[in-house]
Amino acid sequence: MTDCLFCKFVSGEIKPNVVYEDGDVLAFRDVNPQAPTHVLVIPKRHISTLNDLQSDDAELIGKLYLAAKQVAEEEGIAEPGYRTLINCNAGAGQTVFHIHLHLLGGRPMGWPPG
Ligand code: 5GP
Ligand code: ZN
């Protein structure tokens, strides 16, 4: 999608601070981090929201989590613990409509979230 910020990250038109990349997945540091480690893990293929997932996307979503796990290990937050989440639609706080898994760690996490 030409008007999607994260598609521009995938194409290289805009260069984020990349921490992981493979054929299907890109992960980069959030520009406004909410924790010492705050990485966004995205599929390279544009999917707007979790509501748009199809059964064919199951493997791709699994790859997001495998990438998050690897980044967590590299960031040294795997053992103390971290949080992953995907906001779906504006009511949950989604502001960029290309799905992204937030990986947050490096500080204690409260629960329940706001
Ligand atoms: P959402 O609110 O949609 O779940 O998360 C969007 C995330 O994208 C936010 O945490 C926000 O800080 C991040 N973000 C927005 N614009 C940019 C940008 O230009 N670069 C990076 N690296 N992150 C961004
Ligand atoms: Zn996109």
Number of strands: 5
CATH class bucket:
Alpha Beta
Query: Which blocks of ≥5 consecutive residues have pLDDT under 50?
Result: none
Q: Please state the overall shape, judged from the principal axes of the Cα atoms.
A: globular
Tell me the count of domains: 1
CATH architecture descriptor: 2-Layer Sandwich
Distinct ligands: guanosine-5'-monophosphate, zinc ion
Largest sheet strand order: 1-2-3-5-4
Q: Helix/strand/pairing class, anyone?
A: alpha+beta
What percent of residues adopt helix (DSSP H or I)? 10-25%
Radius of gyration: 14 Å
Task: Indicate the topology.
Elements: H1 5-11, E1 18-21, E2 25-29, E3 37-43, H2 58-75, E4 82-85, E5 101-105
Antiparallel strand pairs: 1-2, 2-3, 3-5, 4-5
Model description:
With 114 residues, this protein is of the alpha+beta class. It has a single domain (5-105), classed as HIT-like (HIT family, subunit A, 2-Layer Sandwich). It is built from two helices and five strands. The protein has helices at residues 5-11, 58-75; strands at 18-21, 25-29, 37-43, 82-85, 101-105. Strands 1-2-3-5-4 form a five-stranded antiparallel beta sheet, covered by helices on one side. A hairpin with a 3-residue loop joins strand 1 (18-21) and strand 2. The protein starts with a helix and ends in a 9-residue tail after the last strand. The model has no long low-confidence stretch (mean pLDDT 97). The structure holds guanosine-5'-monophosphate (5GP) and zinc ion. Residues 1, 4, 6-7, 46, 98 line the site of zinc ion.
